[in-house]
Amino acid sequence: MNVSHESAQRQRPRLPQLQVPLALLLGLLLPPVWLQSVFYQFVEQVQDPNLRRTLKQVVRTNPNATLLSVRSEALRWEQEGRPTEGSKQFHASSSLQQPAGGKLTPSVLPSYSSEGAINGSSQQGQRYRRIHPADYDAVKAHINQLLQAKVIRESCSPYTSPIVIVKKKDGNIRMCVDYRQLNAKTRRDAFPLPRIEESLDALSGAKWFSTMDLASGYNQSSPAVNGVESSITARCVMPRVLVINTGGTIGMTLHDNVLAPEPNALVKFLRKLPILHDEEYAKTTCLYDHHNDPENVLVLPLNKKNKRIVYTIIEFSPLLDSSNMTPDDWGKIGKSIERNYDMYEGFVILHGTDTMAYTASALSFMCENLGKPIVLTGSQVPIYELRNDGRDNLLGALLIAGQFAIPEVCLYFHNKLYRGNRVTKVDAGSFNAFSSPNLEPLANAEVDITVNWDTVRRDNTTEPFHVSTELNPNVGLLRLFPGITTATVRAFLQPPMEGVVLETYGSGNCPDNRKDLLDALKEATDRGVIIVNCTQCLRGTVSMTYATGQVLFDAGVISGLDMTPEAGLSKLSYVLAKSKLKLDLQAKKMMEKNLRGEMVSDLKGAKLSLSDSRFIQVIAMTLSISCKEELEAFRDALTPPLACAAAKIGDVEALESIREMGGSLCLDDYGGRTPLHIAACEGHLEVVQYLLSHGATVDVKDLYGNTPLCNAVRFRHMAIVKLLRETGAHFSCDELEEAGTELCK
Predict the structure, then answer these.
(1) Which of 78, 637, 676, 684 is the most buried (most CB within 10 A)?
(2) Residue numbers annotated as active site
(3) Residue 362 belongs to what domain range?
(4) Do 398 and 358 reside in the same domain of the chain?
(5) Is 415 left (phi over 0), alpha (psi -120 to 50) or beta?
């Protein structure tokens, strides 16, 4: 027999879930004679002779007897004041309990541990509950009515398996699932199969009935919190990533012996690559039925974390060679991200390599209060070629965007993830085309993907995500060279020029014996032109060590420290477009400020506080840890559980101490929960405010796909819900429907 039903369409209005117990289905569908033999074996386990005799009589006189009728007789003995050791043993062996008042109430698995109890309350374990015999007719009529109305139908899922009752070697009777048909249709060990008792009670405890996607998994328990049963659903949700194809070499094909972008070709080709799309899985799980544009939806094979990533590809029209990219195209990319921000966990931008560093830098400033990863990638060789770098680059970008909460605009190339405003293209003929000279990679994709969380930057704000598309076009790059004429410099600095990146020698030097040149620079800065000093060297920073550097400072030129020319130009365009920063002094102050990690930051404080931490010193001494690397590894291992424990009890001072120690308050524990998740569950508003003001990400999901906003809604902490929403937290369409259901309970 099949034990699951699924709704005909996901779009149908949800109806109260059908609670069809196993005992009822057994009584309806299995031969009474066969059942009697099973019931006799159950009855034989009762030690009390009087009770055993009575139960045998019940089975003998009622050919349609079920376990419930036998159970009812045992309960009658108790109500008459005759509980015996035999009846107690029968309770333990039958695992059945009559609902109080005959009501249909959700069951609770006695061995199931559910996360997220409120205020230290514990889950109340109870035995399984089944439908009372008096309710059989009503339930059968309800099922028939829904079947006739085609609201439900018998399951035709290839994952449906029959239930059988077997006798074990020890003589006990057990209910088992025949997985042979299922195993023939699925990949071995691809998904862990739940115990049948857990599956049945998860279904019977659900408040609503809807199509269950086997791809995402499902489990549900009903813990009693403060005396009130609250249904908690845990999903292993597949991350969704939006891929924006702007053009570039990765999708180019040969036309008249030259490479040019070809529209609508990339998706068709990716469907043929097993490494980038699992077509069998998509068809088996009806993945395409749940998307509005199924022709552009793909899914990655199962990864090391036993997860899949679903990604949707949209294309620019026309597709562009990156040499044709303009600031207007940057704005178009940014707005595409903003429109789809609430529907995806991450974003990948396919882009040509020639101007990718400029686009990455510009987007890093345009995307304000970013809480999700945006990864630019491309290739040196088209993905259609036999030997290419496009497949690995696209796969790596998808895995990072879908699995890691790195809230930055990044660039992924040749197994490395860089901060977008720190890269520059250094090689036109190598797969290792990009470099980040002054900042180590945010992540390295080798045997495993290793993220350098100490380097990952987070916005310390509670403002929602926003894309600022206003960029000032009156900016430019001026590179010094020996013999440059004053006339050239003056012509370049003439209106409407408002901002210039001056690429100087070495550590920010220019000729100090060229008074005419320095006067031209001084005249421009006096007119309000902002000139930023960036070095021509690939690696290093601007300093005032030499007299030839000090003369530029005296001329009103501001230091760009270790910014790349691409980042300096993009930052100028962004800052000068801010209407409130039209004043020269305000704009200069903003240019000298580290806005998106584009220039050097002083990290000495964190390192000193780590070594000065008495707590770390004591434990390190006990474990004989002395070197800096071991200390940092030990700190990183301790930080998540300590921070989560502090968030649970509302200890802001402890969180501050952990932060001063150099620990990140955004790292997750073994369950994928960050301190923000814990604080949202517990209702600690002050802790939530503190975490948000120190870079906590509102969009990160735990192991079960829950965000801090989901936790706050579930436990009805409305003040925290409001704060998280103001910060930019949001629900997807499915989550929004579930949140409404939670709040209406």
Answers:
(1) 676
(2) 249
(3) 240-467
(4) yes
(5) left
